Structures are given as C-alpha cells and as structure tokens.
Amino acid sequence: MSEQGIFDFDEDGGGQAGLLTDLLSRAERVLVKKLSNNDRDWARYANKHQAGVYIPAEQREGGFFPPLEVKPRKDPDAAPIREAWFDTLWPQASGDERNKHTRIVHYTSKGPETHMTRLPKECFEHLSPASFLMLGRYRQGEDTVYECLTIDSASEEADLVLLQLDITPDFLIGEFEPAEVRAKEQDRVLDFAEELIAAWKAGTIVEFGLARAAMPKTEELAGLARDRYLEIYGLNSLDPFAIERPGNALREISRSIEWDMFRDFQRRERAVELVRIVLGDAPRDMTIADIIRQLINELPRIDALMLSASQQRKSRAGSSYEHHIEAMLSGGKIPFEKQVVIEAKKRPDFILPSLAFISSGEVIAATGLILSAKTTLRERWKQVEREKGERRLYLTTVDENIAGNAIQDMAGIGVQLVIPESLMDTKETEYAGHANVLTFRRFCDEVVQPNLAVWG
C-alpha cells in the first residue's frame, strides 16, 4: 500500500480534498484542532475579545511550534509576554493572504492562555461549528514550512479527515505523525492480507470472503455495537431512564463503537473485492506486467468499488441511528410505531405512542409526538417540516455542526432539537441558549416520562 494511497481523498486530487491529500503526504507532523466558537468568532464579528485561535499549553510547549521567547518590554516589572513568530502558508486564502507572518503569544499575566494570531480572516469567517484547523509541518530545503488548512465540519473533507486520522467524536486537539498513521493502517491489514493471499492461492477466495469479510446487515451491525456498549458499561438494556446521559450513549454507540466495527468490516470486504477484480477467483501464474495490465483494464471497476465504499458509509449511518433509537425506546418501555405511513405518503421515523393515538381527535392526542432521527442534518432538517403537520415534532441528531441561524429557523417551524448532553455543554457547538434545543436526558424526563401513563 503506497503512502499516497492511504491519504487519497478524491479521484483527481483537486479542490479541498487535493489540498488535504498533498498536506498529509508531505507533512512530518500534523496538528489538528476542533475550533471552538471563539476560535471562529474573531473572524465573524467585530470587537471580539479573542483574536485568533486558542492553543493549549500542552501543544504550545510540545515542540510543534517554534520555542517562545520573552518579548522585551519597557516596564521591567511587567508580567512577561512570551511569543514566537513563524511564517505560515494558507493555500485556501487569496492573494497576499496566502502567506502570513503568524504569531503565537502567551500573556503570562493571564495564566496559560495562548493564542495563534495574524491569520487570514477569510479562512475562518464562514466555517460551521466544530470545524477543524489543520497545521502541517515539513522541511523544504533549509526551511521549516507550516502549511495550514481550515476544514469545514459540514464538508465531505471533514468526514475524510476523521476517517483517515482515526479522530474520535470527542476529539478536541491532537498531534499526528502521518508516517505513523500509515504504519498503523498497514499493520491493521497485514495479518488479514496474509490470510487473503493464502485463500486466493488455494482457490477459495470466494468462500473466504463470505466467511471473513462479509459486511453484516445494517441492523445486525447496529446490534453488535449495542451489545458491545452494554458489555463495556455492565448494562442489561439500553434504558434511557437508567442511563445518566442517554444522548451521549447514542453518540458513542453510533459514532464510535459501531463506526470502528464498520471500518474493520469494510476494510476486509474492500480488500477481497479488489483482489478478485485484479487477480480473479482462480489461482494462476501472473507476472508483474500481467498485474499492471489487469489494473489498467479494470480501472472502471476499481473506481466503482472505491465510490461504492464511500456511498456505503453515508447510506448506512442514518438507518443505523434509527435502529439505536428504536432499541432505546424499547429499553425504556416507551410505546412507539416506526415508519408508519401517514397522510400524503409521509413516513416519519417514529410516532409516540402510535398513529391511532395522535390521530384520535381527543384532547390527550396532543401529548403524542413525532420523533425524527438524523445522524447528520446539513440541509436535510428541512425535510421534517412536511412530516410535522400540526403535530409536535422532535428531531434527534448527534451532529455537531449546526449553526445558530439554522437552529432558529427550526424553531420558526416548530421543530424541537434533541441532542447528546455533551453537545450542549461544549464550546465547539452553537446549541446552547436556544429554547428549542434540549438534551436527550431532558427529552426523556420532561417530554416522554410525564406522558407514559396516558400513552399506556
């Protein structure tokens, strides 16, 4: 497996994905930070207190940045100011903004607070919440180059960064050595590759693929992930009333545990399919020239295989999240109907407690609700308006990157957002302060539980 191939984000190497591919391929070390609201607000609003991006002390002193030196001051008794200046390259910026003389500064009078300033505003002002700043450091002749990219959290490139660097949902900041990441990925597939080679030589690659590399159905894989979660935490069921932070549980199961399982299965499945495309199912003597010819001949099928892998990741995520919501409702003995067709062919994810109940015309029908589940929202939240009608609608998601104005737009059409507890607490999202946003804990305690007797 080539070093370039592990970080190959798109087919033509162009656009934002091409910039990522190039940076990860040449950088010796990479620093990635999930941007807080303050890290973006200086570029979006005038007169913000924070200028630039906050850098924690661990990263400031960790050797990634040039060493800080005490700045000469007129007042010898004043608290020291420590700073370092270095040149940064911003390929996404325009004109003179592409090359900046950047400063990292530590005002000791303010404790550990340190900021990276002198940055191109245009690279930050339009970013979604929980976007990323990526800094790559590499040598170019005698010079050390700091190349910087901002990755919008709502973009496909953000998904690929998470995928390639094994970034977990709760990640905030960290350093990576791309060469080490490549080595770890190669280690993951090495043992499986040996088994795969042996199966091909034995003429049993088809049977091997079915036994060792078949992707489970979405519902089955979701169940495996929940079983693993229950095992980790010593639980018997996914009862939201018995779990302190049920929204966080949903996020961990779908975005961490199941995601790791899915990647492992897909890695194997894709490897088997690729070998079968290039080498065939039956063992035969092939020279290097034969293999190269076959690779060229089968490029369309190989391209289709890579594309289907990307589409598979996206298509499975939403339906898998619905399975976890269903398991949690069942675990809490909350009555519901799933995917029931209501008027005009609308098919909401869940109706609590039932379609007959909310359509009865009785006064208590108003206690019922529609619960829609979407792993990521982007613009898809607008789809739920047609499901709503005059009924209460709650939209649950584990998405971090919803902007405040979109949350206000949802409030305008009567959509209540239900999110993991950690997303309400964090400084990287814009959920806090909106009346139509509540945690899954509050949804269970304040919306569902008071009505269980009536629904039952």
UniProtKB/TrEMBL annotation:
Residues 292-443 form the Restriction endonuclease type II EcoRII C-terminal domain. CDD domains: EcoRII-like. It holds the Pfam family EcoRII-C. One of its GO terms (biological process) is DNA restriction-modification system. Gene3D superfamilies: 3.40.91.80, DNA-binding pseudobarrel domain (2.40.330.10). One of its GO terms (molecular function) is type II site-specific deoxyribonuclease activity. This is Restriction endonuclease type II EcoRII C-terminal domain-containing protein. It comes from Paracoccus caeni.
